[in-house]
Structures are given as C-alpha cells and as structure tokens.
Design a protein that fits this description.
Uridine Diphospho-n-acetylenolpyruvylglucosamine Reductase, domain 2, Uridine Diphospho-n-acetylenolpyruvylglucosamine Reductase, domain 3, Uridine Diphospho-n-acetylenolpyruvylglucosamine Reductase, domain 1, about 350 residues, 4-stranded mixed sheet, binds NADP nicotinamide-adenine-dinucleotide phosphate, 5-stranded antiparallel sheet
Amino acid sequence: MTVQWQEWVSLKPFNTFGIDVKARYFAQVHDDDEVREALARAQRMGVAVFVIGGGSNLLLSRDVDALVLHMASRGRRVLSDDGERLVVEAEAGEPWHPFVQWSLAQGFCGLENLSLIPGTVGAAPMQNVGAYGVEIKDVFAGLTALDRETGELRDFSLAECAFGYRDSLFKRAPGRWLILRVRFALSHSLQAHLDYGPVRQRLAEQGVEQPSAQAISEAICSIRREKLPDPAELGNAGSFFKNPVVAAEQVERIRAQHPSVVAYPQADGQVKLAAGWLIEQAGWKGYREGDAGVHRLQSLVLVNYGQASGAQVHALAQRIQADILARFGVALEMEPNLY
Ligand code: FAD
Ligand code: NAP
C-alpha cells in the first residue's frame, strides 16, 4: 500500500499545546513497511523526517519544514506468561492510557502508576516517562527500533536504553532511532507503590485498604484530573520543566532563606528540587502574557489559552528560566521537545 502524503497540513490537532503551525509534508504510518516506504521516499526527495506520536511532549515554535511522520501503528500482545510474570508487547502508535487500561483489565500489574499519561507507547521510552514513583524503566522488557542511519532493526535491552530521569539514549540522539514497538515486564500479582504524593491518602479516603492495581490506577486518575489541565480544554504539554537535581549545599543555601523549600534527597547524595515550588515562590503561578501563561493551579505547567504561538510560549519559558536562575541560582531545563 502506498502511504498518502499531504502538504502544508496544520499540526494544531496533532500537538496538545494546540499550536497552529504547518507541516510541509504529513503522512500517517500503520506498520513497519509503511515506515520504511515513507522514509525511503523522504530520502529520495531530500526531505527531513520528524516523527510524532500524540504530540504531548512537543513545543512547536515554527512551521515544520520536513515530513511529519505520525505513528499510527496498532497492536498489543502477550509474548510470554509463566503464570506469575509476563511480557507484553505493544506497537508504537498505540495510545498510552488505553494500553494501560487494557493491561489492567487483563489482570496484569505494573503500569497502574503510569495511568492517564497522554501520548503513545512508542514515545514513552524517549523520556523514560514517570509518575507517582514509577518510571517506564521499572517495567521495561525491551524495544525494537529502526536505525535511521543504517535502515536496520535493532532490539534494545534495559541497560542499552540508558534510561535516566526523564531521559534516555533515544532522547540524547534526536532523530536517529524510530521506535517501532515496546515490551513490558508485567506481573499477575501486585507490588504496590503508594508512597508518593497523595496516592495512599486518596485510597484511604475512598475506604480502600488492600488496593488492587485497578484501584490504584483509578485513584491516580482522580488525582490527576483534579490537578492537571485537560489538553482538550486548555493547551499544554504537562510539566514544562524537569525537576532540577542539585548539590545538597545549594539546597541548604536556599532553605536558609526559604524554609519551606520542597526537596527530595537522591540516592547519589544530590537533591531533587520541585521546580513547581520554585516557580510558584517566584510569583509566576497564574501569570498570563497574551494567550501564553502559567497554569493557575499547577505552576509547572505552561498553557496556551487559545492563540499563543510556540514562540510566545517559549519566550515566557525563557523569562521564567532567567528569573529562577537569578533568584535561586538554579537552572531549569525544558522537558518538552522544542522544534
Ligand atoms: P510526542 O510529543 O509525539 O513526541 C515526543 C518526542 O518523542 C519527540 O521528540 C518525537 O520526535 C519523539 N517520538 C515520538 N514517537 C516516537 C517514536 N515512535 N520513535 C522515535 N521517536 C518518537 N510525561 C511523563 O513522563 N509523566 C507524566 O506524568 C506526564 N504527564 C503528562 C500530562 C499531560 C496533561 C501532558 C500534556 C503531558 C504529560 N507528560 C508526562 C508528557 C508526555 O505525555 C509524555 O512524554 C509522552 O510519552 C509523550 O508521548 P507522545 O506520543 O505524545 O510524544
Ligand atoms: P506532586 O505530587 O505535586 O509533587 C511535586 C514534585 O515533587 C513532583 O514533581 C515529584 O517529582 C516530587 N515528589 C513528590 N513526592 C515525591 C517523593 N515521595 N519522592 C520524590 N519526589 C517526589 O507532583 P504533580 O505535579 O502533581 O505530579 C504527580 C506525578 O505525576 C509526578 O511523579 C510527576 O512527575 C508526574 N507528572 C508528570 C508530568 C510531565 O509532564 N512530566 C505531568 C504531570 C504529572 P517527580 O516529577 O520527579 O515525580
């Protein structure tokens, strides 16, 4: 089958910030053959390729002078099951949260804390998605990616992905690896991770004493719906900055002036600061500049009230970064991928 290419397509429906830029070329691909066909044609034409999934970790600051390849492959399957542990594989274009829901409905445990994260399965390893104390690396069994430099398929083990905090080998080599499918190591019995934020408290409020994976997922969904803006209603890309990890001495200097600083010691002796706390302390919460702003409830989330351009959102982000650096001596790093 020949992959359909469209020209000058608005990417507004394809990024959760709702930024209205255009793709020079746009094509949806549904399987490995279509991926290869689209890449080969782009190479013949001398056109760059930019891969997207759900567009929920992107800030598009200009028209994309490339072929935007939208991953639309579907499929999920159990590869092995020994009665206790199992390996499940999903295609890159599978929407993440429905995949999590499907795994929970089968009685598979492991993905419950990663509920309600937007985007696709294929993008999840890019930044080692994480929430409520679990990261994809904790349930990762492998992935298959296409090397765009050589055209060869390669399987990656956990160690080879070099996952870090919102980071991976794939994020550090933009454009090289096209992730085709991902494998997850799940279990028939639950190892609950409840000691993060308000999860345990929410379950207690609901009268749940021995939570199932499904109950944890539902509690996390309810917390997330209260705290986070729904991109369908207000454009955003989730947390706009990573939580900075800094030296313990620096945190003590901040604490001397701000005793309420929110900080989490790390295994390596460094300390993770809550970027949202820094931004709120600096007075940015709820700030609005045209249609670009800082969410009124969650200062880590930048929002598009309607007509903001990516450049306007980026300019606001840079002003916040400069202010946090001047006030606290802390450099905030952007989390979404900037184009
Ligand atoms: P896209 O935005 O489409 O792409 C992201 C990057 O990955 C781009 O560089 C793109 O080129 C690349 N890419 C996409 N697909 C592939 C592929 N198949 N192969 C190679 N490269 C690819 N993130 C968290 O970690 N934890 C959270 O709790 C969380 N909550 C969020 C809440 C909200 C409301 C929103 C809007 C975002 C949140 N995010 C969170 C960020 C985002 O949802 C995740 O990073 C998600 O994995 C991005 O998936 P995507 O398909 O939308 O990726
Ligand atoms: P929160 O619960 O208000 O906590 C604020 C920050 O403190 C979080 O960023 C979290 O860091 C950190 N934190 C909280 N409890 C911690 C603990 N026990 N140990 C270490 N660090 C702790 O955060 P939130 O904004 O509502 O988000 C809840 C979870 O969803 C977090 O894990 C967050 O990362 C995730 N989330 C991510 C995105 C995104 O786009 N990346 C968007 C929304 C929510 P961590 O961020 O390192 O977990």
